[in-house]
Amino acid sequence: MALEEDNLFRKIRRRVGRAVGDFGLIEEGDRILVGVSGGKDSYTLLHILDSLRRRSPVRYELVAGTVDSGFPGFRKEVIERHLVEHGFEYRMESTNAYEIIESRRRPGSSYCSFCARLRRGILYSLADELGCNKIALGHHLDDFIETLLLNQFYVGSLKAMSPRLRADNGRHTVIRPLVYVEEGEIIRFMRQQKLPVICCACPVCGEVDQKRQRMKGLIRELKGEIPQIKKSLIGALGNLQPRHLLDRRFPQD
Ligand SMILES: Nc1ncnc2c1ncn2[C@@H]1O[C@H](COP(=O)(O)OP(=O)(O)OP(=O)(O)O)[C@@H](O)[C@H]1O
């Protein structure tokens, strides 16, 4: 059963197609593990990549992979039902990540970042096991530009995320095909398509990251004055001018 391919579906697909072309995200023979959390972004990513696959002359395969971190109350059966209904090959990986986080996390350290690192490792192993050379994640345009601002405001580096990154182990490539898709479009898509979104059920699930929310708010506020702000910020990430920066690792003259 495929989703209805209405205007919004086609718009998001066009943007993903553009990102695939701009950054060479998908190549002949790829087998891509799509990280599906049960959230709006990764469901959207999976359906759009599947629709592109059906239309593309480039042959590639998709496998949906969910890391069940073992948080009590995680409704994995909701995800499984959706993936089966739509005919996706998938793996639900049950892990004891929850116990590891509880026992090893340093007091005061961020729950989410520890959990995300652990999950990333599990996804890499899963990709090996399932014969996947790429891992697709559901980060979208707003994630990219908020991360850019967060790093400038709080860390002091000019850095966001990469749409295509070779993993440290050299075996996998992480791709982020939703780089040109705005979060608002994904929210509309989720509602229109009635995607069965669930939360991870971790102890901090639903709590907002205050700093990220601040960046989100700032961008929203400035959008009234600068309508093209998101386009401009994502454009800035692809328009580096090192000679006009202060990084001495780049020649200045
Ligand atoms: N439990 C999981 N199993 C598999 N992949 C995951 C899992 N959690 C997150 N991911 C992948 O990592 C991406 C970024 O995760 P993050 O926790 O930041 O979620 P998010 O931005 O809210 O996205 P989503 O709406 O898909 O949950 C997700 O879009 C998804 O591709």
How would you describe this structure to a colleague?
The chain has a six-stranded mixed sheet with strand order 3-2-1-4-6-5, sandwiched between helices. It has nine helices and six strands. Helix 6 packs across helix 8 (210-223). It has helices at 7-23, 40-55, 76-85, 97-104, 111-130, 141-155, 183-193, 210-223, 229-237, and strands at 31-35, 61-68, 90-94, 134-136, 164-166, 173-175. It is an alpha/beta fold. Strand 5 and strand 6 form a beta hairpin. The model has no long low-confidence stretch (mean pLDDT 94). The chain has one domain (7-207): 3-Layer(aba) Sandwich (Rossmann fold). The site of adenosine-5'-triphosphate has 14 residues, from helix 2 and strand 2.
Tag the structure with descriptive keywords.
6-stranded mixed beta sheet; single chain; 253 residues; globular; binds adenosine-5'-triphosphate; alpha/beta; 9 helices; nucleotide-binding; 6 strands; Rossmann fold; 47% helix
SSE layout and pairing:
Blueprint: H1 7-23, E1 31-35, H2 40-55, E2 61-68, H3 76-85, E3 90-94, H4 97-104, H5 111-130, E4 134-136, H6 141-155, E5 164-166, E6 173-175, H7 183-193, H8 210-223, H9 229-237
Parallel strand pairs: 1-2, 1-4, 2-3, 4-6
Antiparallel strand pairs: 5-6
The structure holds adenosine-5'-triphosphate.
Residues 35-37, 39-42, 65-67, 119, 137-139 line the site of adenosine-5'-triphosphate.
